[in-house]
Recover the amino acids of this structure.
């Protein structure tokens, strides 16, 4: 049974077909990368998977449940979350508070209980903080736990966004260009982190421009071009595929 | 309990003042207005500062609470507490029904919609004179009793209103530092990321809108009994703007910022009375100056800069001692 299945997906923006007739499925516990030239529809695909955009046609299944028209917060509740190409860290909070928001679905205190701070709330606060610190530790961010997010550098914020997503304990993590803007050392650390995430039992769906990174860590690669599937397979197959080479380098 | 140090300090100051100065005009007369304004500003800050949803109609809920108490006790002879409860119910229903469509709007559009709400409610107070007494308002509310204890002097009112104020501050601090508060701050920070963390953003926004409206309504009921009089003037669009100014002046998103903002804005006019005709002019100039030089608000700037300044002075002192 595939974790994620996409059937006949289509998205039009006016006359532009951003995604058309797309079929693919993602098995569990792997790193699955989506690559393609600029404007191929990679981020659009992510936005469709999390229903930030509504598909024009087609359907998306997660563990055989249809999620095509579920609001994003319900999709998150099923175990899908993402990081963003343009960072969406909560800059009005500290690092640990950011990650504590990631624990939203693993805790349940409501507004009124919080207002009068019932004993159950105090207990849960403690648990949530521990979960958050654990996720920060996993990403090697323990040292900045209590720093305000607004004063952290870009590379750290990228990791913080990953820690926040991991605090949810998702089944599927969508990462939109995690290596963009990182230097070589940071990229290598990221590589290791993504592998660790997969090994902890979370399937990773990756959109990335850094080909070295993609070919190095991916278990499977899907190539998009003009919103259509160009090729899919293990990295070695993709590297040899003539259509893919043509799409990236142009025809003779 | 480090978390509540600020709260206990505030409680201490609030409760020691009337004991030290029981007859002081600024404590027991102006003080009551200040307490009401602080309670309202703190409730508005939950919506505006924490969740980032502007409201230019907060005075409407304050007014609905006040009018509910006045009308139900005078015209229908209801028990004041029951009247207050019915006021809360009315405000609950109204704010709940309005919250979903209104809070779908963002920025200027949300400001316009809440502004409209405030104006409509105000027009209702002025025009529906058979119920509300029109522009003249209603006077002659029965005294509020806590069991057999009658609240009939400014001094006693100080204790009631200060308790209400401190409760709202405590609730606000508790919420800010909780799962619910973080969800709201997340909505403020990035609504799309909040949704991807599983937060039902429409629901949490609606909840805090209703919650802050209910605090305003309860405050309105107490205000009506304390003033023994309600008129549309107290609940106009201008008062909504004043509340927003208090929140922004003190420092958006900080509970104590709202407290300080409300305090400064309520007491300033008292001291500016000596300038007579120029009062409003100077008042405006002070507000402008604060916003230009302390854009993060009074409280936030002070708490950020003060430790910095103090440590700098300390270094200079130790530096000159060693040389």
């Amino acid at each position: 049974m595939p974790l994620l299945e996409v059937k006949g997906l289509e998205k039009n923006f006016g006359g532009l077909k951003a995604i058309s007739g797309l079929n693919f499925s993602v098995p569990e516990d792997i790193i699955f990368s989506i690559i393609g030239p600029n404007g191929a529809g990679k981020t659009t695909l992510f936005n469709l998977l999390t229903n930030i955009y509504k598909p024009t046609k087609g359907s998306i299944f997660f563990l055989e449940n249809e999620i095509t028209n579920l609001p994003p917060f319900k999709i998150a509740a099923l175990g899908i979350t993402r990081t963003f190409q343009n960072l969406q860290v909560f800059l009005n909070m500290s690092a640990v508070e950011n990650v504590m928001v990631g624990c939203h679905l693993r805790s349940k205190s409501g507004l009124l209980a919080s207002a009068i701070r019932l004993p159950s709330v105090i207990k849960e606060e403690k648990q949530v903080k521990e979960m958050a610190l654990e996720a920060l530790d996993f990403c090697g961010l323990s040292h900045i736990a209590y720093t305000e997010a607004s004063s952290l550098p870009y590379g750290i914020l990228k990791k913080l966004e990953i820690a926040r997503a991991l605090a949810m304990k998702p089944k599927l993590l969508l990462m939109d260009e995690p290596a963009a803007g990182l230097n070589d050392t940071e990229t290598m650390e990221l590589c290791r982190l993504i592998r660790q995430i997969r090994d902890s039992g979370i399937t990773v769906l990756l959109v990335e421009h850094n080909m070295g990174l993609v070919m190095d860590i991916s278990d499977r690669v899907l190539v998009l071009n003009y919103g259509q599937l160009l090729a899919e397979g293990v990295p070695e197959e993709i590297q040899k595929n003539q259509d893919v080479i043509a799409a990236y380098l142009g025809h003779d | 309990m480090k978390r509540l140090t600020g709260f206990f300090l505030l409680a201490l100051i609030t409760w020691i003042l009337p004991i030290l100065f029981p007859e002081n005009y600024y404590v027991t007369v102006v003080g009551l207005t200040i307490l009401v304004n602080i309670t309202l500003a703190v409730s508005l800050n939950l919506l505006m500062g924490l969740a980032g949803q502007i409201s230019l109609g907060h005075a409407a809920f304050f007014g609905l609470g006040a009018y509910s108490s006045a009308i139900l006790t005078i015209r229908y002879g209801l028990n004041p507490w029951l009247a207050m409860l019915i006021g809360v119910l009315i405000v609950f229903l109204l704010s709940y029904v309005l919250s979903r469509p209104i809070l779908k709007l963002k920025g200027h559009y949300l400001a316009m919609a809440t502004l409209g709400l405030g104006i409509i409610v105000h027009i209702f107070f002025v025009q529906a004179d058979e119920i509300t007494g029109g522009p003249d308002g209603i006077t002659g509310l029965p005294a509020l009793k806590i069991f057999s204890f009658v609240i009939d002097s400014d001094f006693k009112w100080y204790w009631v209103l200060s308790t209400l104020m401190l409760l709202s501050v405590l609730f606000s601090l508790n919420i800010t530092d909780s799962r619910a508060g973080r969800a709201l701050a997340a909505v403020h920070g990035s609504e799309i990321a909040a949704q991807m963390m599983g937060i039902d953003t429409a629901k949490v926004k609606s909840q805090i809108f209703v919650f802050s409206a209910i605090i305003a309504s309860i405050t309105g009921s107490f205000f009506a009994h304390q003033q023994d009089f309600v008129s549309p003037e107290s609940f106009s669009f201008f008062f909504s703007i004043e509340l927003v100014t208090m929140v922004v002046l003190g420092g958006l998103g900080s509970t104590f910022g709202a407290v300080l903002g409300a305090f400064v804005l309520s007491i300033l006019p008292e001291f500016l009375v000596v300038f007579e005709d120029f009062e409003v002019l100077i008042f405006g100039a002070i507000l402008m100056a604060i916003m230009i030089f302390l854009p993060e608000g009074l409280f936030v700037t002070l708490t950020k800069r003060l430790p910095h300044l103090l440590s700098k002075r300390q270094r200079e002192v130790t530096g000159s001692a060693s040389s």
In short: Chain B touches chain A through 30 residues (CB under 8 Å). The beta strands of chain B are 138-139, 144-146, 149-151, 229-230. The first strand of chain B starts at residue 138 and ends at 139.
